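Treating backbone geometry as a discrete language has practical consequences that deserve illustration. The sequence in question and its structure tokens are set out directly beneath this paragraph.
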Amino acid sequence: MITLIGTNLAQKGLEFVHYGGAPSCMKCRFKNTCIDTLEEGRIYQIKEVKETQHPCLIHEGGKVKVVVVEKSPILVLIDSKTAFEGSNILFKPVECDNSCIDQELRTPEGLYEGDRCKIIKNLGKSQIKCFNGTNLSLVLLEVV
């Protein structure tokens, strides 16, 4: 998908989280291309940087570049019983009553309960044992 990003940030491979537009973005003529194509709270990775630039009131330097982005794959711990490469799942975080050290991997930024996901890669069982007894696997998910 096409979007716009500040010229200083326009680098292939850069990942960013879209948090929505600033108030001044709502009246911008590039709003449809810049922020309306992205979902709030999702992580994106820049795949291609175009030479085209446009003026911007928000970004440093006053300009944005056209970039091609994709949703970024997300590392997450899920129940090992559902961790099959190539399968589609509805994401449901593993519940735990304790403040586990792996909490960031159980509920990573950019992934929400009920998201439809494809398991791209199973990276193996976690070495960290869950206090509730669930066997966990670290997987790379793609939100579909």
